[in-house]
Design brief:
Blueprint (H helix, E strand, L loop, with lengths): L1 H38 L5 E3 L1 E3 L1 E5 L2 E10 L2 E5 L4 E6 L6 E2 L4 E5 L2 H29 L5 H27 L1 E3 L4 E3 L9 E2 L4 E6 L4 E8 L11 E6 L2 E17 L5 E8 L11 E7 L4 E7 L4 E3 L2 E9 L9 E7 L1 E6 L2 E6 L6 E3 L11 E4 L17
Parallel strand pairs: 1-25
Antiparallel strand pairs: 2-24, 3-18, 4-13, 4-17, 5-12, 6-8, 6-11, 7-10, 8-9, 10-12, 13-16, 14-15, 14-17, 15-16, 18-23, 19-20, 20-21, 21-25, 22-23
Length: 378
């Protein structure tokens, strides 16, 4: 037992110096790594930069509106009758006065022929009475009765001609037909819906704006219209009417604009976005919207500042600058306060940056910013 204890003590005396040497070596290595890390300089981060410049923008008022036809109505049967023929297809273009529907008119034609015969007899009687009155062989009352009989007979002819005319339904104006709701052989009563007809070129776009903008609205101003059915297109029109009164419920004023619509892309009832272009030009400082970082303390941008003593176009570092934003237009946003003309701001990837970071400008892969972007996946 005593012998074993001696061997353990011998082993400990030999192992402790070795372990101590190893620990000392590792501690030295850690100190060297710490010193190297403290003296190491991170390479500058490549960033896209955009130079702040003045831009001339026409201010716009945004609204939502609806497409309204210049001419549009629901056609209905003007009299009773059986449908003999339909002369239009759903969705077809028709001209003013074109025959759309024919009802049976045999009875009215027979009544018209009878009325015309009565007119001939009444005319003959009136002529005879007129001749007799010249020789005083007929009383004044008999002559008046003959004249009245002729007028009544002519009125009957007009009446049956009108009834016969109403058996034929014609297009009141040029336009495009809707889906018809009747069939050949169907009996229609007066007022039965037949189909809708809409004139699609031009069309109106009606929209409302708050009353505070009344002083900025004028006839002849341009509007730009967008519709989700045609995301890659914009339609242009002109303000042609402004309501003389303000809506007492919403305190908005109703505005009407007229737009050319040769391809019939805008349809009555369609919901559209409207931008009313005002008749003035504002000078703004515009930067890409992607240059703005939004945080709890407001909007900010990273401005490139040259390090003291660094050569031109090199040695940049970042300075965070709080900004006050204005209106947005396409890929850009106006800055009302916080930057000046000629400042360079980081235009993309601002979420990964921090103040004081060393950067270098590399616009090789910088995106193209546009006032009227047309994204391919819209």
């Amino acid at each position: 037992m005593l012998k074993n204890i001696k061997w353990v003590m011998v082993g400990a005396l030999i192992g402790l110096p070795i372990a101590g040497g190893i620990v000392a070596i590792k501690l030295g290595q850690f100190d060297a790594m710490g010193a190297a890390g403290a003296n190491m300089t991170m390479p500058p981060e490549p960033v896209n930069a955009y130079t702040v410049e003045e831009a001339a923008w026409q201010p716009m008022l945004a609204a939502v509106g609806s497409v309204v036809p210049v001419f549009g109505t629901a056609l209905a049967a003007e009299t009773d009758g059986i449908v003999r023929s339909i002369h239009f297809e759903a969705g077809a273009r028709v001209t003013a006065g074109q025959v759309l529907l024919q009802l049976d008119g045999e009875l009215e034609q027979a009544q018209l022929r009878e009325a015309k015969a009565t007119v001939e007899l009444a005319r003959t009687s009136f002529q005879r009475a007129t001749d007799l009155s010249k020789t005083s062989n007929i009383s004044r009352s008999d002559l008046d009765a003959a004249r009245t009989a002729l007028q009544r007979a002519e009125a009957q002819v007009d009446y049956f001609q009108t009834l016969l005319t109403r058996k034929t339904l014609r297009a009141p104006f040029a336009g495009r037909m809707g889906i018809h709701r009747i069939n050949v052989g169907q009996y229609l009563t007066k007022g039965t819906p037949v189909a809708g007809i809409q004139a699609l070129d031009p069309v109106y776009v009606e929209f409302s704006l708050p009353q505070r903008h009344l002083g900025q609205i004028a006839l002849g101003l341009t509007i730009r219209v967008s519709a989700d059915a045609w995301p890659d297109q914009h339609f242009t029109g002109t303000v042609t009417a402004v309501n003389p009164d303000v809506d007492t419920t919403t305190r908005n004023i109703r505005v009407q604009a007229t737009l050319a619509n040769p391809d019939a892309h805008l349809r009555p009832g369609m919901y559209v976005g409207v931008q009313l272009v005002l008749d003035r030009v504002d000078t703004v400082l515009a930067i890409p919207a992607t240059a703005v970082a939004h945080g709890p303390h407001g909007a900010s941008v990273f401005v490139l500042k040259q390090k003291e003593g660094a050569a031109a176009d090199s040695g940049w570092e970042l300075e965070k600058q709080i900004v006050r934003l204005g209106t947005r237009r396409g890929d850009f946003v106006a800055v009302n306060e916080g930057v000046s003309v000629g400042d360079q701001v980081v235009s993309t990837g601002v979420f990964k940056l921090r103040p004081g970071m060393a950067v270098k400008v590399d616009n090789t892969l910088a995106p193209e910013f546009r006032l009227s972007p047309t994204p391919g996946n819209s």
